[in-house]
Design brief:
Elements lengths: L12 E4 L18 E5 L2 E6 L8 E7 L2 E7 L2 H16 L9 H16 L9 H14 L5 H11 L8 H15 L12 H16 L11 H9 L1 H6 L10 H20 L30 H10 L7 H11 L3 H6 L2 H5 L4 E4 L10 E4 L2 H7 L15 H15 L12 H14 L2 H8 L3 H8 L5 H7 L8
Parallel strand pairs: 1-5
Antiparallel strand pairs: 2-3, 3-4, 4-5, 6-7
Length: 463
């Protein structure tokens, strides 16, 4: 029989035991090799020493591979062969491990036993399975690289009360509502005021509660009781429209997004998935606008103490500018571009420059002001303008009983009559500074072409 050495066997697992390093033991007399050790039908073969290899070798097959162990003493080789034969017969899994693998397994079990992050002992198979899966997913990066990358991106949530966080959020927003060096603020003071009132009501609903402790149920509770909160009375509910509730929702979402950036909320908080934060479809309200006769009555009534209102009312009705845009205008914006009013990017709601055509009727109403080359059209606050406009409606009502103050009535009238006159939503939207879809949705079919012609023919009385 020819002896096969490890270098000649494909997949041969060589495991030289520690006993191969101790002193040599004399070969038992009259011993013939190879010697086969049996346990039932399992067998392990012992090979004797050779001149060029002074060790006893035991060879067996386990887990589909041929394995070898080396011993300096025959007694150790015989004992190991008997143990392996018994293990093979009992299908013991340890026979599939080499001595090096066995030591690695024992070390791994000892490390796992010492590492119990949540008080639970982790299994070796789970650790190996998750490690292999992770290494496959990170495209060749080491586990240390993956861990360092995770620690660099993970946020530590700081515990902060809802009221404290809301106050900090509003203070930061107030800075954006101020005009630096006379320039236009990032957000309007009116918008900042409304947002403050809405968020203060939200924060007052959860006194002493940390922002990180909020749940979807808390958010739902706020919107469920919004009627009582808005009326400041538990016995009386205030009717809150769908549009107003959507405004509250927008503010709460902004607050949560800011809180994530400040590490007051974890990125995966999921509060915005609350059922009450789903936007509602608001009912389309009726578009109210002035008639040509009412427009003329307003212009004629704007005199004496209200004379400053006349050019603004004329510009609003004949050019369709928004109230905030008109109150930002300077007289230089009226005359700078011939036949047009220039609405610069800093004065436009959309922050995009546009030119609005000056119709013949508007030129007539602005003729008395040709000497005004510079200076603001309105020197007061928007609130003051609204109060004066209500007063103007009351005065005009003496001659025309149907005149009532209509929210954005001048701009609505311009869009309605301009679209009726030209039947071109693109042209009207270009003048008004909004989208063609908005013109088509809100102003189509509200007036006839004849009414449009009458509106843009409102001239100053000859007297």
């Amino acid at each position: 029989m020819r002896t096969t050495f490890s270098s000649e066997i494909d997949g041969f697992l060589d495991s030289r035991t520690d006993s191969a390093q101790i002193s040599e033991e004399l070969t038992p007399p009259k011993m013939r090799f190879p010697k086969i050790v049996h346990h039932q039908k399992a067998e392990v073969t012992i090979y004797g020493k050779k001149k060029n290899y002074p060790f006893y070798r035991i060879i067996y097959r386990a887990d589909g591979k041929r394995r070898m162990q080396h011993f300096a003493k025959y007694s150790d080789a015989l004992k190991a062969a008997e143990e392996k034969a018994e293990q093979l017969w009992k299908a013991h899994p340890i026979v599939a491990l080499s001595a090096v693998q066995t030591r690695d397994a024992i070390t791994a079990f000892q490390m796992l036993d010492a590492f119990r992050p949540k008080g639970e002992r982790l299994s070796l198979s789970t650790i190996v399975s998750e490690t292999i899966d992770l290494l496959k997913r990170v495209s060749g990066r080491s586990l240390r690289e993956v861990g360092d990358g995770f620690l660099a991106s993970v946020a530590t949530v700081n515990r902060t009360d809802v009221a404290t966080a809301a106050s900090e959020f509003l203070q930061a927003a107030d800075v954006r509502a101020k005009s630096p060096d006379g320039q236009r603020a990032q957000i309007s003071s009116k918008y900042a005021y409304n947002r403050r009132k809405q968020l203060e009501k939200f924060a007052a609903t959860f006194p002493g509660t940390a922002l990180s402790e909020l749940t979807k149920a808390h958010v739902d509770q706020f919107f469920e009781n919004l009627g009582e909160i808005a009326s400041k009375s538990r016995n009386k509910k205030k009717a809150i429209s769908a549009k107003s509730r959507n405004h509250y929702r927008a503010v709460v979402r902004q607050f949560f997004a800011w809180a994530v950036r400040k590490d007051y909320l974890p990125p995966n908080h999921r509060l915005t998935e609350a059922e009450s934060l789903r936007s509602e479809i608001a009912n389309t309200t009726e578009t109210l606008f002035y008639t040509p006769d009412e427009f003329l009555a307003l212009l004629v009534a704007a005199k004496d103490e209200l004379a400053d209102l006349r050019p603004i009312v004329a510009i609003g009705g004949f050019s369709g500018l928004r109230t905030a845009e008109m109150l930002r205008l300077d007289w230089a914006d009226i005359w700078r571009v011939p036949e047009h009013i220039e609405v610069s990017a800093g004065k436009s709601k959309t922050r995009q420059r546009r030119l609005v055509e000056t119709c013949p009727a508007l030129k007539k109403w602005l003729e008395p002001h040709l000497a005004k080359k510079a200076g603001p059209l309105w020197k007061g606050h928007e609130v003051t303008f609204q109060q004066k406009f209500v007063e103007l409606c009351e005065i005009a009502k003496l001659n025309k009983k149907s005149i009532e103050r209509k929210s954005n009535g001048l701009r609505h009238a311009f869009c309605t009559y301009h679209y009726a006159l030209h039947a071109n939503e693109n042209l009207t939207s270009q003048q008004a500074g909004n989208s063609p879809a908005m013109i088509h949705q809100h102003y189509k079919g509200l007036a006839t072409k004849a009414e449009g012609e009458k509106w843009f023919a409102v001239m100053p009385p000859k007297s």
